[in-house]
Amino acid sequence: MTLVADESARLLETAARAARAAAGVVARAPRPAKDAALRGAAAALRARSAGILAANEADVAGAPGLSAAYRDRLTLTSARIEAMAKGLEEVADLPDPVGHVLAEWTRPNGLRIRRIAQPLGVIGMIFESRPNVTADAAALCLKSGNAVILRGGSESTRSAAAIQACLAEGLRAAGLPEAAVQVAPTADRAFVGAMLRASGLIDLIIPRGGKGLVTRVLEEARVPVLAHAEGLCHTYIHAEADPAMAREILKNAKMRRTGICGATETLLVDAAIAPALLPLLVADLRALGCDFRADARARVICPDLPAASEEDFSTEWLDAILSVAVVDGVEAALDHIRRHGSEHTEAIVTEDAEAARRFLDGLDSAVGMWNASTQFCDGGEFGFGAEIGIATGRLHARGPVGLEQLCTYRYHVIGTGQTRP
Amino acid sequence: MTLVADESARLLETAARAARAAAGVVARAPRPAKDAALRGAAAALRARSAGILAANEADVAGAPGLSAAYRDRLTLTSARIEAMAKGLEEVADLPDPVGHVLAEWTRPNGLRIRRIAQPLGVIGMIFESRPNVTADAAALCLKSGNAVILRGGSESTRSAAAIQACLAEGLRAAGLPEAAVQVAPTADRAFVGAMLRASGLIDLIIPRGGKGLVTRVLEEARVPVLAHAEGLCHTYIHAEADPAMAREILKNAKMRRTGICGATETLLVDAAIAPALLPLLVADLRALGCDFRADARARVICPDLPAASEEDFSTEWLDAILSVAVVDGVEAALDHIRRHGSEHTEAIVTEDAEAARRFLDGLDSAVGMWNASTQFCDGGEFGFGAEIGIATGRLHARGPVGLEQLCTYRYHVIGTGQTRP
User: Fold this and answer.
1) Which span out of A212-216, B66-70, B105-109 was modeled with the highest average pLDDT?
2) Spatial separation of the C-alpha atoms in residues A290 and A304, rounded to whole Å
3) Whether pLDDT at B312 is above 60
4) What backbone phi and psi angles, to 5 degrees, belong to A254?
5) A381: distance to nearest CA of chain B, Å?
6) Testing the interface with A: which of B413, B416, B418 to mutate, by most A Cβ within 10 A?
7) Which pLDDT score, from 0 to 100, does residue B1 have?
8) Higher local confidence (pLDDT), A129 or A388
9) In whole angstroms, what is the distance from residue B350 CA to residue B329 CA?
10) Apex CA B153: angle with CA B219 and CA B388, to 5°?
11) Could B415 and A370 be called an inter-chain contact, meaning their C-beta atoms sit closer than 8 Å?
12) With the C-alpha atoms ordered B149, A346, A97, A195, is the resulting torsion angle positive or negative?
């Protein structure tokens, strides 16, 4: 059944108005109530595990044409449900970001001014196949005092509804409004369009998924968006790199997990060190199953590498493929990154502090690293406890988006009768 | 001449690409260069004062149908040019927000993480009649390391060009790219549309002007916007207010300047104190020339007040008119504000700290005040030195937008060869 756009807009408006009312309650809920809701939801996930698995089986059975990888992402197991429950409990353990005094000062006229962290309001989360995102995203939104409307993949609606029922049980038991966590009331794609146009009803859209989904959201949204369309991350091995460190970092940055946004897609290596080091780097990665796309200068050193097209350097492989270019120093590396990068995460490996400074200063990326693997671009690794995504835009938040980034702020100004001259 | 939209888009793209290149330079410019550019521009404004006045006279002569108020806002005088020059020097004196370490921590694995303030990039400023905004906005954008494209009112193009020439002189003398401060190359309204659609070319749009302009920008923009469409500010006089303080605060909040966004538009007064206090408040304001729109309960106490319609309570008067309602306590006041307010600035006057806490906690507004005039909602009064506007949205910045709010951040992660397990 395809709903007309107006029907989707009506459903969205109903959901968003309920979310707005709930947001006013959870924004002011004390920490123990929010944590109790999360722990209650975790208990419900464990107690209702059989029902969730049955719902998920029906989802998987109802989507026969899926690729094996997609099918794997869609499938829940007892272990995955337990991981979801643990995830909720871990978020309950995190500090409450709401009400935190971010800054405080007193004016010469005696006015005391406080900048205080406050929830954003109503968040719209749009994601693809993994049903566990329902629980993870709901937990982070609730803990940060926000209401959330979750729109997962249309093939996972039964799983999402079963997970949402557990969250509702937790909220109810904690005396919080169930409407703080809602799943889309329809699998119709027009509902996504309605979310993207819901200016004034939804305060922030967070898309999580492939480049196609995120690009559509960024292009169509009339609501602010926190996202990254891609993570075309670079590791630059400077002439003064420690060769052993460079080899370990590159192996990890490229091959630890190839499908995450912080994985290195392109190796830039200084001409001065490339003849000695590049063959070793290639051998290391080849032993791990990596393939290459190399520019002409790299192929002079390693003639057996496949040639890269210009477009290859603008491709986020998300796979065991590495683009390779030989460059002449920091400025050339920065030029390459500005031409091809996505302002996500780039790393330099060098023992030369001045070169590292020039590289980091010259980047516009959300995250610049010195002598570390680009795969550290992650909310957990940053110490945020958990993340709802990574942002590469310029406004509000950049890099990992955790509880703190799911808040805005407001001011309290405390006087003793002051009037403005 | 009306340009086709494509021609405007082409002009905008050319300006924005030049701005992007300049932004890369001013983002990394040391403080002395930026300050020298601002002081040089101030000197140029003084030196070229006669030429600026002549350009402005031509603008005023070329727009004969204007209201007196609009004509006054459009007109420059020697004193106004001197004020612009002083404004540039004051911004030069402000601390540089760029590169400020906002947070810094070390992870258990030894990674050092720094969150560092960074310019936003290219800002589009859309404003109405006052030509001095050209200088003020340019100064704040440049000092915060951003490039800016300024689109003022179509009737002030000669004035804007004359002022921009002074800024260009300052930039040139300081060795910074002139393209860091550009004015729209055409007065065609289609250029505004092109700015609003310039996703990826412009990072942030700041509109300054009437509700019509700001609403159009908020509705049409595909680029993030910082703005307030209106400032429908409330002063709530609680039952436990100090009557003398309440009278002074209300006089100031309503009548100090009626045309600014922080001016109080609605008085809410508790039923318990209204019979004694409301007649005094009305007499105070009437003596200053204020008119009223009162609800039925207020008119029982002051029968000579004109009756308010429901719509009056949702009207930002920006004039010597005050909407008045009698309410029953903090929750009723908050209800009224949620129904009619614009999440800009609201104040409570009370000696009861618990009532003040409930009021401030219950607000969603950017600024909540206790025993102070709503007219303090201003970047200068907050200690920011200057402001480019006031934001009431939920993302990025709320309240006065100063140098700090014109920055985003990025991370530097400093390791010693760490790889992610």
Assistant:
1) B105-109
2) 14
3) yes
4) -90, -45
5) 8
6) B413
7) 42
8) A388
9) 11
10) 70
11) yes
12) positive
Q: What's the pLDDT score for residue A4?
A: 58
ipTM, 2 dp: 0.94
Q: What mean pLDDT is predicted for residues A95-124?
A: 97
d(CA B144, CA B336): 39
- What amino acid is encoded at A205 in this protein? I
Residue A73 has pLDDT above 70, yes or no: yes
Best probe of the A interface among B237, B331, B346, B394, by most A CBs < 10 A, is B394
Among B28, B219, B376, the residue with its CB nearest the CB of A413 is B376
* CA gap B8, B401 in Å, rounded: 29
Q: Which residues have CB under 8 Å from B147's CB, separation 6+? A: B19, B20, B22, B23, B26, B121, B122, B123, B141, B179, B180, B181, B182
Chain A: residue nearest B222 by CA? A222
Reported as a single tens digit per residue, the pLDDT across A316-348 is 999 999 999 999 999 999 999 999 999 999 999
Res. A3: pLDDT tops 80: no
Residue B394 to residue A203, Cβ atoms within 8 A: yes
Is the pLDDT at A387 greater than 70? The verdict is: yes
CB A389 within 8 Å of CB A398: no
Q: How far is CA A404 from CA A96, A99, A360, A368, in A?
A: 9, 11, 24, 20
Helix (H) and strand (E) counts in chain B: 15, 15
- pLDDT at residue A300, rounded to an integer: 98
Q: How far is A281 from chain B (nearest CA, A)?
A: 16
A225 forms beta bridges with A205
Domains of chain B: 5-227+399-413 (3.40.605.10), 233-381 (3.40.309.10)
DSSP B227: -
- Separation between Cα atoms, residue B144 and residue B207, nearest integer Å: 18
